[in-house]
């Protein structure tokens, strides 16, 4: 039986909490397939959903950690990379449906949910300690609007398309002159001058 998300697991950031809830939901649906008759296609679909959503969540969580100056950001970022790498490697080694179900259970329970319950709670512990030391740090839940403010607007050659770029990527582009291309038009994205 998988644990379910509860308020005790809140990091007091609405966007991250919603993503954690969604991850618990996807993991729960994935775990349910383990003990019932499921086709390989059904399992692959939920695995892809889990992997894609996990990658999106990890990116957003790293932006959040950066915004609160979380001191273990690099270690946490590396743990995210390990989880994605392990998930991908496990899926690549699958030989049959039973093997697929076993990998799905490990991914859902061990890598994702235990990561949220153990490691992500360290982020909240840090946020609380900073709030006590620095009263200017928001004590209330961070709204999605405040969360979005940590993103920068970039354009490409697609008509009317705006790329919302997180602070870490923005810094790489501006300071390290890194190039990132639009997946659609393949053109290098440029900071939108306001």
* CATH-assigned homologous superfamily of the largest domain: Hemerythrin-like
At the first level of CATH, the class of the largest domain is: Mainly Alpha
Q: So how many helices?
A: 6
- Total number of β-strand segments? 3
Principal-axes shape call:
globular
Low-confidence stretches: 134-149
Provide the residue-averaged pLDDT. 79
Strand content: 5-15%
Pairing-aware structural class of the strands and helices?
Answer: mainly alpha
User: Helix share of residues?
Assistant: 55-70%
CATH fold-type name of the largest domain: Four Helix Bundle (Hemerythrin (Met), subunit A)
Organism: Helicobacter canadensis MIT 98-5491
Pfam family, one: Hemerythrin
Family: Belongs to the hemerythrin family.
Keywords: Iron, Metal-binding, Oxygen transport, Transport
Detail the topology: elements first, then pairings:
Blueprint: H1 14-34, H2 40-67, H3 73-92, H4 97-133, H5 144-148, E1 151-155, E2 162-166, H6 167-175, E3 190-191
Antiparallel strand pairs: 1-2, 1-3
Task: Give a description of the structure.
- This protein has 194 residues and is mainly alpha-helical.
- It has 2 domains: 7-132, Hemerythrin-like (Four Helix Bundle (Hemerythrin (Met), subunit A)); 152-191, no CATH class.
- The chain is 62% helix and 6% strand.
- It has 6 helices and 3 strands; from the N terminus they run αααααββαβ.
- It has helices at residues 14-34, 40-67, 73-92, 97-133, 144-148, 167-175, and strands at residues 151-155, 162-166, 190-191.
- The chain has a 3-stranded antiparallel β-sheet.
- A hairpin with a 6-residue loop joins strand 1 (151-155) and strand 2.
- The longest helix has 37 residues, at 97-133.
- The protein is globular and about 55 Å long.
- The N and C termini lie far apart (51 Å).
